[in-house]
Amino acid sequence: MSVRGAFTVEMTPVDGATPARFQLAKTYEGPLSATATGEMMTAMTATEGSAAYVAIETVDGTLEGKPGTFTLVHRGVMERGAQSLSVTVVPDSATGALAGLSGEMDIQIEADGSHFYIFDYKLP
Fold first, then answer.
1. Cis bond leading into 124, ω under 30°?
2. I need a labelling partner for 35 at 20 to 30 A (CA). Which of 6, 11, 51, 61 fits?
3. Would you state the pLDDT for residue 17?
4. pLDDT of residue 18
5. What is the rounded CA–CA span in Å between residue 40 and residue 34?
6. Which of 72, 84, 2, 3 is nearest to 35 (CA)?
7. Contact call for residues 92 and 68 (beta carbons, < 8 A)
8. Counting Cβ atoms within 10 Å, is residue 72 exposed (0-12), middle (13-18) or buried (19+)?
9. What is the CA radius of gyration of the chain?
């Protein structure tokens, strides 16, 4: 199955350390109607367009009407503007009607700053 929708994200700095840490609060809209909380760490470099981030977020809501929770793990790397992103459901993390969920999410950010997800998933 594949679903697409919009989401908003609020990032709150945890401290001024390097790498930087942020608390995440997200709201997903569309076929994935949910809220999520998590934490992200970022590493910036002196080279423009090169950076990395890792994050873990717990999603709580409904996926195409099925209620439950699941956890996503993120790994993003930019090398001089070339991007590599992996956002994957943590195995065996899903609960409720989403138990057994697996999948990967792609994140797209438009020029105006709006965020969209494409979530390819499987349920048993």
1. no
2. 51
3. 75
4. 75
5. 19
6. 72
7. no
8. buried
9. 15
Residue ranges and CATH numbers for the domains of the chain are 2-122 (2.40.350.10)
CB 106 within 8 A of CB 87: yes
**pTM of the model as a whole:** 0.93
What averages of pLDDT result for each successive group of 10 residues across the chain (124 residues)? 97 85 97 98 91 96 98 95 93 98 96 96 96
Q: What is the C-alpha separation between 113 and 67, in angstroms, rounded?
A: 29
Name the token pair of 35.
């809220």
Q: What is the pLDDT of residue 44?
A: 86
Nearest to 34 by CA among 1, 3, 13: 3
Max Cα distance, the chain (Å)? 46
Write out the H or E segment, with its range, that includes residue 1.
Answer: none
- Total residue count of the chain as it appears in this document: 124
Q: Which two tokens stand for residue 77?
A: 């790397």
Angle in degrees, CA 61, 63, 69, rounded to 5: 45
State how far the alpha carbon of 46 is from the alpha carbons of 20, 41, 76, 79, in Å: 15, 17, 17, 12
